[in-house]
Amino acid sequence: MPMTTRLLPRRRCSAVVVAAGVLMACGQHSEAQPVAAPALGALPGHATRDLVVTASLAEVSGKLELTYTVEDRADDDAYVLDVSQVVAGRTTAYVITPIYLAWTGAGSAHLVQGIAPLPPDRDMNARVIPLAQRVPAHGKLVRTVVLPRPLAEFGPYDVPAAPGAEQPLRELVVTVMAMRPSARGFRRSAMDGTTDIYRVEAAYTLGSTEHASARAAFPSARALRTFKLVPGTVASFARLAP
Questions:
Q1: CB-based contacts of 49: which residues, under 8 Å, 6+ apart?
Q2: Where are the domains of the chain?
Q3: What is the pLDDT of residues 12-40, one digit of tens each?
Q4: Is 208 helix (H, G, I), strand (E, B) or coil?
Q5: DSSP letters along 175-192, please?
Q6: What is the value of pTM for the model shown?
Q7: Could you say which DSSP state residue 123 is in?
Q8: Which of 21, 26, 30, 108 could form a disulfide with 129 if both were Cys (CB 3.0 to 4.6 A apart)?
Q9: Are 174 and 53 a contacting pair, CB within 8 Å?
Q10: Contact, 134 vs 195, CB < 8 A?
């Protein structure tokens, strides 16, 4: 599972500690009106050509594996925001797991390895910010992650997801997010016991991120169980356009 934080759907702001990092996110959707269709979530930051993402899916020993490569084509470093912190007792691990997965219709699902969109039906006191790994200028980073089976929508603000209908899939859109030292007010702090995992932030963290995407075909017929949506109410899961 990706990182999670306890939901505190109230309008007053307060600090919440989560595994990777937090941003205050309060007062949003305080007077949301019921809608019949799911809202599309918006990714923070901006699309860029300085990151190049490639992705492929394969069946390996009965598991569905995703391999994605992030190439930094700029002349400065990129801090890729796809690292989750897992704490078990006195042990802390930094792992790469799927962070946010949503069905987008027309046989496509969207995996976001970065800052997940906020749910559109409630106020949140904090936003989950993944940790980052540095990719040097003109360098590459290769990841391999196992997708959960059965495949279902998930995100850091809805655990567990209410089961909905199954949708047929033919492709996965993979979006990876990063931040650069050129961002105004950029700061980084190394995580204890690591040499290349950081918590990064900037004067405007969300707006300072960039993202790039790739498409990967499923190796065989696949079904995705969607998050349950109730007609006539605000969507309980934000879905992203591919």
A1: 73, 212
A2: 35-240
A3: 333 333 445 555 443 333 333 333 344 56
A4: helix
A5: EEEEE-TTSTT-EEEEPT
A6: 0.83
A7: -
A8: 21
A9: yes
A10: no
